[in-house]
Design a protein that fits this description.
The protein is of the alpha+beta class and about 55 residues long. It has two helices and three strands. It is elongated, with a radius of gyration of 13 Å. The protein has a three-stranded antiparallel β-sheet with strand order 2-1-3.
């Protein structure tokens, strides 16, 4: 079992109305290494976000 995690940073559009720098993080545990980093980058980009390297 590995300790692989992916962190997506996405804007919280509702909270952003009150504070321009509001964001929320989505931490995905990927113990079996099944998630593709490129697909996660694409998904986050669709929401004006990005994937961070842990």
């Amino acid at each position: 079992m590995s300790d692989v995690r992916h962190v997506l940073v996405l804007p919280d559009r509702d909270a952003a109305q009150d504070a321009e720098d509001a964001q929320w993080l989505l931490v995905l545990r990927d113990e079996n290494g099944r998630l593709d980093a490129g697909e996660l980058d694409e998904f986050a980009g669709e929401w004006d976000g990005w994937r961070e390297e842990p």
